Amino acid sequence: MPENKKQHYVPQFLLKNFHNSQSNKAISMYNIPNNLCVQSTSISKQACRDYFYSEDTDVEKILSIAESDANGIIKKIIQSVSIPGVEDNEYPKLLNFITLQLYRTKYIMDDVQAYHEQIAKIKKDMIESHYPEKHLERYQIKVNINKVKILFRFSLSSPLLSDLMMLILVNKTTKPFVISDNPVIVHNPLLFEKFNGNTEGICQIGTCMFLPISPKLCLLLYDSYYYGIRNDNKVVVLNQEKDVFSLNILQCLNADINIFTNDTKYLPEVERIYLEHETYKLHKNHENIVIPQTLESIDGETINDTYVTKNMKHTKYVELSFIKKKRLLSDKRYSIGDCIRNPALVDSVKDDINWIMENIRTGVIQSKYHRLEFL
Q: Count of alpha carbons within 13 Å of 281, Cβ hemisphere only?
């Protein structure tokens, strides 16, 4: 087998923090498609595909460099039960890891693929309606996304999280945190009722993000303008099982194919959580991500023939006792587009990404990514 042929979209070091009692290389797993509880399976075979990102195996090598930094940082967090300060040079590396992990999974790449396929079909249908004599219905559209380019662009977007507060949740209950093959949860209690579901944008007001890093610890990023969370030196102790249960519900709803736990005895509970809440999941097959919708402008004018992106995974609202709303959503806000948390930051990051991508394309910046043909 060629070296680095197997490309992981959840790093092994993170899953190893959830290893079961049989081996530090094994984990317990609930497989969603087959509704199957697996008592023990190899960590190295999970959350990966052959040539998932690219047939250029250097991609896995480059990812392993970033993962090595993150592994060291997360080991420190687990040992010290504390997070690096904002001024610490490890803090932006941690934000980068969380951002990259959010966007590098199979679930997200499938979402991006489906989005581009649906946009291509919409454009094709529009052209057909104007030029029926071209008989475009005879042609099939094939879309192949450049996962490496997408991954690179997403990896540059970590500054979008810099205005969120980071805390660490310490699980003092007898129930473990679980993790999945799509482990970074984006949760928005503030916007949930207004948009009838959980909106997933990391730039929105009211954003909360969770990443479990062990059965007992979970990182939390949140919008401190809208939420208040009592903490002791950035540490929040969870003593109520209902909070752990709620976070595990969100993790199960976020999962793509597999949900993992360190505790084989907890597997039946994982199965029960998923099956009881499965009906809340949306777009399980990535269908209807782009849909036609009639919108109403801020002046009340009706806007027809508009397509919107449904950036929402589920419609399950969960209570988290440690998150308290400090402010309510203004009635003046009328759409997702008006709910950007920090427009100036978003514009700045967008400009930076475009500048970097253009300068790599033109050869001004000689990057280690350049020879991997990100462009």
A: 20
pTM of the model: 0.89
Contact 105, 256 (CB under 8 A): yes
3 contact partners, CB below 8 Å, separation of at least 6? 57
Q: Is the pLDDT of residue 371 over 80?
A: no
The whole-angstrom separation of Cα 72 and Cα 93 is: 11
Question: CA torsion angle for 158, 159, 160, 165 (degrees, to 10)?
Answer: 100
Six token digits for residue 314: 């589920």
Strand 36-42 and strand 26-31: the pairing is antiparallel
**CA–CA separation, 95 vs 69, rounded Å?**
12
Is 168 strand, coil or helix?
A: strand
For 174, the token pair is 């007898």
Q: What is the pLDDT of residues 239-294, one digit of tens each?
A: 999 999 999 999 999 999 999 999 999 999 999 999 999 999 987 666 655 555 44
* Rounded distance between C-alpha atoms, residue 10 and residue 150, angstroms: 16
pLDDT digits (tens, 9 = 90+) for 2-15: 667 889 999 999 99
Give every CB contact of residue 12 below 8 A, 6+ residues apart in sequence. Answer: 43, 44
Strands (DSSP E) contained in the chain are 6-8, 26-31, 36-42, 48-50, 165-171, 179-180, 185-187, 208-214, 217-222, 227-228, 235-238, 258-261, 290-296, 302-309, 324-325
Q: 99 Cβ partners below 8 Å, 6+ apart?
A: 154, 155, 157, 158, 160, 161, 202
